[in-house]
Each structure stands twice: as structure tokens, then as C-alpha cells.
């Protein structure tokens, strides 16, 4: 189906014969060819004119058209993280249709930059390239406030927005509890919720970290409580429709796990000094096996931080992807306008509801498991063997 945009006046005013003649005269030259040709600044004007002989819709003297085509393709490649190069190229060429209307192409690029996978241009590109929307599109990172310094990007993205929103919700919850100097003797609903979270985290800290007095354990409790609350709010917030699951990205969970693990290692050296290295060699090991066991224990110790981040990321991403797939299947059956499919849609719909409830439980469980493992690793670093 040919795509029509209201702001492409030249396309609307052209006749069907002009459109068909233009389509038949186009060759198989790709955007990469245009980019390579535009980068050759030493080429003469007569040589560059030959590039556009088979492309009457392009102006050989307007480099902006080539730049926009390249930028559209690069942006689609950034959004279609799980697509092949050929699929991205087909989507880009179908989207801009080698148009010579600069405002039209600029509007496409603006829509891709502003709305990303939720925009009309992205959906149009998928339709023109005959691509099925991926359930992983919900995890795409979109720059809301682009900021670049050389090759480095410091853009304010949707994960940044939702992490700030999570922090704001947590501080707002505490403000309800601590306003007017503290809690009430008869707790209200908000105070009861905070006290429940406090006791829920305090019990694992007391159970898993042994050999220390209660006052010493309180040094580690605030960090563990904030970690648990942050993960809990991020996981639950991701269950809200049209929101973003921060913990579904590996870099975020890996950064959190490695930063905590580095802190645990520093605590171990502060508590035990160089004797902390004896953690890598269990007691009673034969001397010939010591080098191998030290290497294995060191690898195992480093992989704790890696597995801590992977576990949280994989559970959240897999659960949300499964809910997305089954929700799309249920919605497709519901839109078939057939009584048989409408009745059959009850099965997938109930499965989606059940999975949603399961994901709520997984969101709470993964935050708790992350906290428990932090307590166990902290106990190993303090008490060694």
C-alpha cells in the first residue's frame, strides 16, 4: 500500500503515471552508496552527477537529502536493535522513498528522534518493510533530551526519567511518614507500609550477617534497605502500562551489582586486612592444588557480581516479553471480528491475566532475592570462612 503524508505536497500533486515511471526508473543503489559518494569531497561535479542519473527524484546538488537519508537509516538501526542490516535498509528506503522533499524527510527524522518506537514513522517503516513488531521494542532506550560531547552521549533518556520518578515516589512516601517531625503513635496506612518494608529488610540482615552486634549491623542496613526499596519500586513501576522497566536493562542491573560488590570487597579489606585474601583458599587444601583453587575461587568471586546482575535483568526482561507476546496474540484474536475467535480469545486473555499476577510476584521476589544475596556476600566478606 502506498503511503501518503499530508505534508508531502509534491507527492500528492503528482499523477499516478509519474509515480509509476519514477518507481520503474529507480535502480538498486542503496543509502550506503549515497553516503560513500557524498564523502568523496575530491570528486568532480561531472562525476557526482552520474550517481543521480537513474534517480530523477533526487537533486545532485543538494547534499542535505543524502544526509537525511543516512540519518534516517542510522536512527532506524539504533531503534531496531534486533533486526538485520537488510531489514533496517528496507525499512529506511521504504520510509523516505528516496523523496527530494527536504521538509518531508526532516519531519520523518524528527518523529523518529522524538517518539522512537512509539511514533508513527517507526510503525510506518515496519509496515512498508513488512516486518512484525518485536516484543523487545518496549525496552528501547530513547533520548528525551539529546546531549553529546564528541563521540560520548550524555542524553537524558527514558530510563533516566523513570529512575528519577522512582526516587521521587520513594521520597514522597517517606514524606507522608516523617512529616511534622516523625510518625504517629497510631500508624496510618503509609506509616504501616514503611514499617512493613523496614521489618521485611531488617530480618534478613539479622539472619544472614552473623558474628556482629546489632549496632554494627545497622551500619549496613541503610544501604541494603535503599537497594531493596529502589529495586522494588522499579520492578513494580514497570508493570504499569506504557511505562518503562528500568531493571530490564543489563547495564543498569550490572552497574548496580558491581558497585555494591566493590563496596562489599572494600568492607572485607577494612574488616580483615590482607587476611581477607584467605577467603580464596579454603582451609586444609593440599599445597599442590592451592594455585588452581585460588584461581577458581577468584573467578567464582568475580562472577558473583555478574550473576547478581544477570539474574535480575533476565527475569524481568523474559517476563515482560512473554506478557507482550501473549497480549498481542490475544488482541489480534479479539480484532478478528469473528464470534469463534472472540470466544477462543478468552483462553489467551486469562493466561495474560495470570501472567500479570505472576509478574507482580516476580517483581517483589527478585528484589528480595537481590537483597538476600547482598547480605550473604557481605557476611562472607566479614566473617570469611
From TrEMBL:
Places the protein is found: Mitochondrion inner membrane
Keywords per UniProt: ATP synthesis, CF(0), Hydrogen ion transport, Ion transport, Membrane, Mitochondrion, Mitochondrion inner membrane, Transmembrane, Transmembrane helix, Transport
Pfam families, A to Z: ATP-synt_A (PF00119)
Composition-biased stretches (Low complexity): 13-27
Biased composition (Polar residues): 28-47
Any GO molecular function: proton-transporting ATP synthase activity, rotational mechanism
Similarity comment: Belongs to the ATPase A chain family.
Record's subunit section: F-type ATPases have 2 components, CF(1) - the catalytic core - and CF(0) - the membrane proton channel. CF(1) has five subunits: alpha(3), beta(3), gamma(1), delta(1), epsilon(1). CF(0) has three main subunits: a, b and c.
Protein name: ATP synthase subunit a
Biological classification of the source: Eukaryota, Viridiplantae, Streptophyta, Embryophyta, Tracheophyta
